[in-house]
Amino acid sequence: MTLLWAVILFGLLIFFHELGHFIVAKMVGVRVLKFSLGFGPKLIGRKIGDTEYLISAIPLGGYVKPLGEDPEDELTEEDKPFAFNYQPVWKRAAIVIAGPLFNLVLAFIIFTSFLTFKYPVAVPELESMTTTIENVMGGSPAEAAGLRSGDEIKAINGTDLMDWNEMAAVFSKNPGKELAVKVRRGAEVVNVTVTPEPVKGTDENGKEVTVGRIGISKKLGGKVIESQSIFSAPFKGIQAVYEWCVVTVEVVVKLFSGGMSAKQIGGPILIVDAAAKAAEVGAYTYFNFIAIISINLAILNLLPVPVLDGGHLLFFGIEALRRKPLSDKILIAANKVGMALLLMLITFVFYNDIVRIVVPWVQRTLPIN
User: Fold this and answer.
1) pLDDT by residue (tens digit) across 176-198?
2) Do the beta carbons of residue 193 and residue 180 sit within 8 Å?
3) What are the CA-CA distances from residue 312 to residues 112, 259, 307 (Å)?
4) What is the pLDDT of residues 282-320, one digit of tens each?
5) 24 class by beta-carbon count within 10 Å (0-12 exposed, 13-18 middle, 19+ buried)
């Protein structure tokens, strides 16, 4: 079932993305040769007008092939008015940006459906997702170590932290042990030592255990968007999409500025695992997860990196300013650099996924003494 939930998730995300490219290409007069749900070998297909509609063997993707997208395509003079590369900049930009916009449309449809049936949409504050301390208890190990409200715990014993849960787990597993803690306090980095206080508790099996506590709490913040009627649901759906876009952009900015650990970046394995867990909870949680991932995909696709939609938009902007396109040599070189960066990112997120998900699973399944 895990694979099925992943297929539905990736299928919806990529179908809406490619549907955006397809619809706008048709609207501005660009001939679309193929629209495939899935990629790889064709399973079934039917040509209607100029377009062949396909279902392909590998369901985790899809693509749209407009006429003349590849500079090496041989075109007749009759074909050129309908070819992608012969369109004015604004038409090409409209086709490209439609993909990410349709991912936002998917999120809007899901959120509006929730709100129509009186299900709320929650949007967290970024600080509630990080290791930023909101309160320090009086007389606690944290107070004794000099920790303050607003401090962000970056690492423990030299190991970078991904989120609050990971940080809490480290403190919990080390009762009575002195730990070296790296803290970001405003613009400076402070190093302190903290010894978690041993506290009696119970594990998930009800067995008594001793855990470590340092006496801090996190900020519990965010917005809960609700609709009182079917008529206000679409407007609230737009608000929900906007609020999630803001959070996503804040996360991206923090990742690039070093304000958030790169360990928080996840990839396909994490998404598949999370999708399966969300589906186990119920349809609401699963589709809410799809909406959030769709917004993330839209924002990341708009980054000005060659081979992404944002990279194409960057080149179109330069072309508009220069009043002529960049040379094929520059475009090919830029796309090679972009592809190399993308492959490096893919490798990194797979590493994160393996460390975060696969390794713990192997350790649980095949305990090594």
Assistant:
1) 999 999 998 988 999 999 999 99
2) yes
3) 31, 28, 7
4) 888 889 889 988 998 899 889 888 888 888 899 889 888
5) buried
Residue partners of 289: CB distance under 8 A and separation at least 6: 9, 274, 275, 278
**Of 167-181, 259-273, 320-334, which gets the smallest average pLDDT?**
259-273
How is residue 54 written in tokens? 């396909």
CA nearest neighbour of 220 among 123, 124, 121: 124
Give me the residues paired with residue 188 across strands. 185
Residue 233 CA to residue 241 CA, distance in Å, equals: 12
CA dist 102 and 110 (Å) reads 12
C-alpha distances (whole Å) from 201 to each of 141, 172, 189, 211 are 18, 10, 33, 7
pTM score, two decimals?
0.76
Mean pLDDT of 328-335: 78
Task: Set out the domains of the chain in order of their start, with CATH numbers.
Answer: 88-125+222-369 (no CATH), 131-218 (2.30.42.10)
Q: Does 18 participate in catalysis according to the annotation?
A: yes
Distance of CA 42 to the CA centre of its chain: 29
Residue 70 near residue 83 (C-beta atoms within 8 A) = no
